[in-house]
Each structure stands twice: as C-alpha cells, then as structure tokens.
Amino acid sequence: MAQAIQVSEAAAGGLLEGLYESSSPVMKAAQAKQAFVAQVRDVLSQTGSATGRDWVAVRREVVSAAPAPGTPPPGEYVVVVLGVETGPQRGRLETITFHRDSDNQWRLCGFVAAAVGQPAPTTNPKK
C-alpha cells in the first residue's frame, strides 16, 4: 500500500522516467517508455495536482494460464486503486499494479490514471 502511494507521488512529481526504469520487465514488455510517460503525463495534466490520496481497493491476483492476447503473463500481481482528490468535486482514480518478479521483488508493472467519470485509457497499449 505504501509503495503504491510512493508511485503515485513520484508520478505526480514528474518522475515518470525513473518509475519506468525501475519497473518490472512485464511492464517494459507491454509498453514503451515514451508511451508510458506521455499517457500518464496527459492524464495528470488534465486532472490537476493532488490534494489528497486514499486507497479504494487492494487485491491480489494470480495469473496461471497461458496468456491470451491482451492479458498479463502468468505470475503474481497486486493491484491497488487509489482515489486522488484534485479539487472540489474533481479527482481521478489511479490503478497501480505490481508484479512479483523472478527475484521475489515486487515491481511496478502498470499505472493507469483516469479522471473520475471518464473511461480509463487502455491498460495494454501498443509499443
């Protein structure tokens, strides 16, 4: 949970390249750095600066089957959804996903932000 808030704060602080560089190989295989940076910057600039964050949901997922197109590769995942307040009656949801890599370290493998009331951008963009 604390790691998800750190990721959210780092993204809001413009440290997107660093987040990508330290992310899981799962994320790097799914999305190029430039696409990740552009997508997150776009949503964050549209929704404004955070004035507060709180968790909405946390879930653990185990993907064991061979992946189908558009699904994550096998492994263990933790998905954290944060509600981010950005002003009176404004905000966004941030879905931050971690993957347990082969060295048993949990690393960022997904970050999707969407304005409340807006559809989320695709979670599996093309490179």
From TrEMBL:
Q: Name one Pfam family in it.
A: DUF4019
Q: Which domain of life is it from?
A: Bacteria
Q: What is this protein called?
A: DUF4019 domain-containing protein
